[in-house]
Design goal:
By secondary structure, the chain is of the alpha/beta class. Helices cover about 45% and strands about 15% of the residues.
Length: about 180
């Protein structure tokens, strides 16, 4: 099935570490690229590699999300799909990004904390619970779930491919 006339948007994936944000967003990015769309992928870990001094306090996280959101808004304004994957734990920063973008789609990967912890291949939750990591979202720092996301995907009992299809079903329904 061709995705021939999808309207470019900023697909902003948000959710806890281990929820499936990066996995699904990478696959969405690859599919859009394969379909011939102009698309950029902005991932939290990759962006932090470029800007390693970005901290994890509320103020630093908000500032980081707002900067990336500004870049995403510029790309989208010029007809580029933006697939952004950031924990982005605070509503006010995500709302700032929504307001900057001409077209914004919030994709909440709502996988429960206990499932994310069970998937924790990096051992981050264990370290956070042991007090070795400060400001860890979901443990020592809050996550404010979206109140009205365009998409809500719980990856507990679905494959990444099913999550990707949910995104494309949404995009096709709005074009």
């Amino acid at each position: 099935m061709s995705e021939a006339n999808l309207k470019p948007t900023v697909l902003w994936f948000t959710g806890l570490s281990g929820s499936g944000k990066s996995t699904i967003s990478e696959k969405v990015y690859a599919r859009l690229k394969n379909e011939g769309y102009e698309v950029e992928h902005l991932d939290g870990d990759a962006v932090r590699e470029v800007f390693p001094s970005t901290g994890f306090s509320k103020e630093e996280r908000d500032d980081h999300v707002k900067k990336v959101g500004f870049i995403a808004s510029l790309l989208q304004k010029h007809g580029v799909f933006v697939v952004a994957s950031f924990i982005s734990p605070y509503r006010d920063a995500r709302d700032f990004v929504r307001q900057r973008c001409q077209d914004f789609t919030e994709v909440y990967i709502s996988t429960p904390l206990e499932v994310c912890e069970a998937r924790d291949v990096k051992g981050l939750y264990e370290k956070a619970r042991a007090g070795e990591i400060d400001n860890f979202t979901g443990i020592s720092d809050p996550y404010e779930p979206p109140e009205d996301p365009e998409l809500d995907i719980d990856t507990t009992d679905i494959t990444p491919e099913e999550g990707v299809q949910m995104v494309f079903d949404y995009l096709q329904g709005r074009s």
